[in-house]
Amino acid sequence: MKRKKETKTILMAVAMSLVMSACANGAISTTAGSGSTTADTTAAASTAEGTTAAPANAGPGGGPPPDGQGGPGGGPGGPGGEAVDTTTGRVTDVAAAVKADAVTGSTACSSSTETDAAVACLADAFLKTLTDEQKEAVQFDLTAENGAVWSNLPAGNVKRNGLMFGTLSTESLEAVKALAAEALSGTGYSTLRSIILADEYLTTDTGNTMWDADLYYIAFLGTPSATEPWVLQISGHHYAANLSFNMKTDSVTPMFVGVEPQTFTMDGVTYEPLAARRDAMYNMLGSLSAEQQKTATISGKFDDVLVGPGQDGNFPAKEEGILYTELDDSQKALVKASIEAWVKDANEELSQELLSAYLSEEALSQTYIGWSGSTSYADHGSYIRISGPRVWIEFVCQTGVAYKDQIHFHTIWRDKLADYGGSFSS
Description:
Low-confidence stretches: 1-81
Signal peptide: 1-26
Largest sheet: 11 strands, mixed
Mean pLDDT: 83
Order of helices and strands: HHHEHEHHEEEEEEHHEHHHEEEE
Keywords: Signal
Protein name: DUF3500 domain-containing protein
Shape: globular
Region (Disordered): 30-86
Number of domains: 1
Radius of gyration: 20 Å
Distance between the termini: 25 Å
Helix content: 25-40%
């Protein structure tokens, strides 16, 4: 895969931790505001907040049970799972580092012309900044069990793999930023950066330390290599990405993005991280006629995404919604735009490969769009889904956690054949 030739400005921040099963945090997407600095809004596509996947006692259509009924929403050790100490060992102000506009990586890696090789080089450069103890803590075996350890909930509530950003030295954190910037697209890094800053905003605005930029994690499943399989895992509140390399199929899924509040201003810059994803999905839904909306209705109600953390491979056996081929040309274009809103977070070459697969005529002829609850993103329980032979996208609106008079978003993007690079699927 050829390395993307674009300048990527990226800054990683860590997310604080410890929020409850429905956590609210924001990814940042900048929008132009009167008197505000504008930051690449398009780059920060919609993001979804902490999710609780549907457990065995889920309601019709797979909707999650009421809060407090447990379930695998937080992945292994999910809601109510083992508590995690996120208060000790912090040495770096992640939010300050993420706000910066420069990313400095190893110059030795700049000569790599292949994305996989460049990412492996930057991963190795990051490892060289760590102590022996940290090196041991960041590396895991490449197994399905380890792959499933991610969540959208606050870090204090649910265990993550790897090292917490806030415990890294300044040098190590800069190396993480460079690694993430190379592994994702410029848009994808902006999404990550914005969501981290949303957590920082929550902590500053509410005084609740369960959200914090320091509380994001990095882990390697397998040994970083330009030729051998491995996964780069980044996870925190309202963000999880599993970037696979040298697998059956390279991928960035499962990818969870969420945000609370939907928009916020920090240091004169206004962020609206999920605006692109939100607008794409609701433009698509809004284009349907009354009769088409009826056909596209999914049974059951949804308070959260269905195939979230802890739900690997648990896709519904039966498709629901309206088939892509039943739409007119303008509606079909909106379906494609919705899928692209997620896929563009992957690096350029991988994004093109995935879109070629997802948007082929054969794949689209088997792709459904559906909705439940409400057609407005102002309403709790408004839910939209896209399901194809490979692509799976969910967008759901929830009453806010930090701001109960507002709605916040959770989203999930999965690939039915290539989650974790397809290495754990039968």
